[in-house]
Amino acid sequence: MRVLMIEDAVDLAEGVIAHLARSGVVCDLATTVESARDFRAVQTYDAMLLDINLPDGSGLNFLGKIRDSGDRTPVLMLTALTSVEDRVAALDKGADDYLGKPFDQRELEARLRALVRRDADRKSEQITLGPLIYAAKDRSATLNGKRLNLTAREAAVLDALIRHEGQYLSKSRLYNSLYGFEDADVGENAVELYIARLRKRFTGSAISITTQRGVGYRIGLND
Predict the structure, then answer these.
(1) How far apart are CA 5 and CA 17, in angstroms?
(2) Is 184 helix (H, G, I), strand (E, B) or coil?
(3) Closest by alpha carbon to 108, among 116, 92, 162, 29?
(4) Which end of the chain is less congested by CB atoms within 10 angstroms, N or C?
């Protein structure tokens, strides 16, 4: 999962980003509306965390323009403005959820998971593919009843693949779910390493990850 956080309180943002990283979520930080536009011009996000009061404009106006353009990326408002009027204004502009500051990091992560799950039409925290059971809540997985000891990167790749089971995901798309702009020195070939590790974990099972040259990778059941 890759998230854009639009927040000018850098200390708060860095804390959120660090917590999300431990859950395998890549989070880019934009401290202004202008920088948020720049990020979105070159990158697609699974969700956005958006403050209302930003140095160069209103987060609500930014949100309104996003929605007017037809973009339905899930948006969770994070703001100190918590009156009923503020919440109604944000929801009317197209926000999907609203969380007041200060907040508990666990609640933020739970709300974020719920938004992405809803957007992907996944109503359950648990995804089952034959003998493989994946729990989105903590990015854990069991195969034939035995827990897989996945690294954070392996879990991130599996998360992307299993949420789009049956579809081919390009190397670039998987790479974008693993690394942020600050990791630009890491090449896309790193994805192949994590695909190889997952394949090794699935050896002898009914689960396979297939490759279509020039298209990408797909998880599914063996024929």
Answers:
(1) 8
(2) coil
(3) 116
(4) C
* Residue 167 neighbours by CB distance under 10 Å: 12
Q: If 0-12 CB within 10 Å is exposed, 13-18 middle and 19+ buried, where does residue 95 land?
A: buried
CA–CA dist 85, 101 (Å, integer) = 16
Whether the Cβ atoms of residue 63 and residue 95 lie closer than 8 Å to each other: yes
Give the pairing of strands 53-54 and 26-30: unpaired
* 158, 135 contact by CB (below 8 A): no
Q: What pLDDT, in 10s, does the model give residues 1-23?
A: 889 999 999 999 999 999 988 88
Condensed to tens digits (0 to 9), the pLDDT of residues 130-180 reads: 999 998 777 889 999 999 999 888 988 998 899 888 889 998 888 887 776
Rounded to 5°, angle at Cα 14 from 10 and 20: 145
Tell me the three state secondary structure of residue 217. strand
DSSP assignment of 48-67 equals EEE-SEETTEEHHHHHHHHH
Burial of 206 (0-12, 13-18, 19+ CB in 10 A): middle
| Residue 219 near residue 41, CB atoms below 8 Å | no
The C-alpha angle with vertex 22 and arms to 177 and 41, in degrees rounded to 5, equals 35
Give the CA distances from residue 189 to residues 2, 105, 182, 183, in Å, rounded to whole numbers and listed in that order: 19, 33, 17, 13
**Phi/psi at 154 (5° precision):** -60, -45
To which residue do tokens 């401290």 refer?
A: 31
pLDDT, residue 123, reads 46
Report the pLDDT value the prediction gives residue 108, as an integer from 0 to 100: 93
Residue 126, token pair as written in the block: 């648990």
